[in-house]
Amino acid sequence: MSASHSACSQAIRAYWQLVHSPVRQRPVLALLIRLLAVLALSVMVALVKLASEEGISLPEILFWRQLPTIPLILVMLWAGGSLGRLKTHRLRQHGFRATIGIIGMILNFGAVTLLPLAEASSLNFTSAIWAVILSALILHEKVGIWRWSAVLAGFAGVIIITQPGDGHIPLLGAAVGLGAAFMIALISIQIRDLASTEDSLTIVFYFSLFTLPLLGLVLPFFWVEKTLYHWFLLGGLGVAGLLGQFLLTAALRYGSVSSVIVMDYSGLIWSTLLGWALFDNLPVAATWLGAPLIIGAGMMIAWREHRLSRPTRNIGPGT
């Protein structure tokens, strides 16, 4: 038992050093890690859909997704001798982040249960488009012709995919998917503010700390008897979600956000493959026409954000 405990502690310390020690930029490795992160998160949402189709309710899925986070972070911080990093003077801001975060998770997982995986993934990519709009409205950032053109192109892709009135996909599912992407953009702005004073693990810790008790209170009203297969799905989505979070963090140790974000769009490939393998569902032609517009809009926005973050160059007014 002591040998096992020692090996576990060494593994945790190794991960801690990977995440928090300065390393040189390795863009190819960063891209590979980000690709694996997106794969892990795609597996998570596929397991969410399978669990939902097995009759497990959304509140219960959310509870089991969140449950491993707190003990794991506590063990990691303890192994690294850094429990003091959980001290915060911004509990109110963490509470607000938890409120919008749980709404975002409900909408994100809800979209997966209502839509085919590829369509849910495509609509999720509109978060970059919503971020531009929110930056203009909330942060009063100046947005020029390039990014507004990307916004219009992205929403044209949404219209092509959803085809309002055609019945290709349920309008409720499309609305939930767009709402989930909007919440992701809103959460990103809130996290940007919190990250100015808080560690990333601290933000994740307090998100779970605030949301788990609420999910635990409603859990008895949604509890269903489970088979071994059900527990496999719930355990699998929890592990895949945590693995995805850790890989996202690791990728940013070797490359910048602007350099690795392109790999996020591989989610459409993973979702398509998982949808075909697990649900015998392939995207229709409208999705293949609309998704490139949304992805192209997101890449354009990421490119302009990268250009704007370089203060030594004058890139002109058309931002």
Topology:
Elements: H1 2-20, H2 27-53, H3 58-66, H4 69-79, H5 91-114, H6 117-124, H7 127-137, H8 145-162, H9 171-194, H10 200-222, H11 228-254, H12 257-260, H13 267-279, H14 285-308
Helix pairs in contact: 1-4, 2-11, 2-13, 3-10, 3-11, 5-6, 5-9, 5-10, 6-9, 6-13, 6-14, 7-8, 7-9, 7-14, 8-14
Summary, kept brief:
76% of the residues lie in helices and 0% in strands. With 319 residues, the chain is mainly alpha-helical. The radius of gyration is 20 Å and the shape is globular.
Highlighted features:
disordered C terminus; 0% strand; 319 residues; mainly alpha
Walkthrough of the structure:
The protein has 319 residues and is mainly alpha-helical. The protein has one domain. It has 14 helices and no strands. The protein has helices at 2-20, 27-53, 58-66, 69-79, 91-114, 117-124, 127-137, 145-162, 171-194, 200-222, 228-254, 257-260, 267-279, 285-308. Helix 3 packs antiparallel against helix 10, helix 5 (91-114) packs antiparallel against helix 9 and helix 7 crosses helix 14.
* Topology order in helix (H) and strand (E) letters: HHHHHHHHHHHHHH
Helix % is over 70%
Which strand-content bin applies to the residues? Answer: under 5%
- Biggest sheet features: none
Give the overall form. Answer: globular
Q: Say how many strands there are.
A: 0
Mean pLDDT: 83
SSE class: mainly alpha
Number of helices: 14
Q: Total domains, how many? A: 1
Radius of gyration: 20 Å
Low-confidence segments, ≥5 residues, pLDDT <50? 312-319
Spatial separation of the terminal alpha carbons: 59 Å
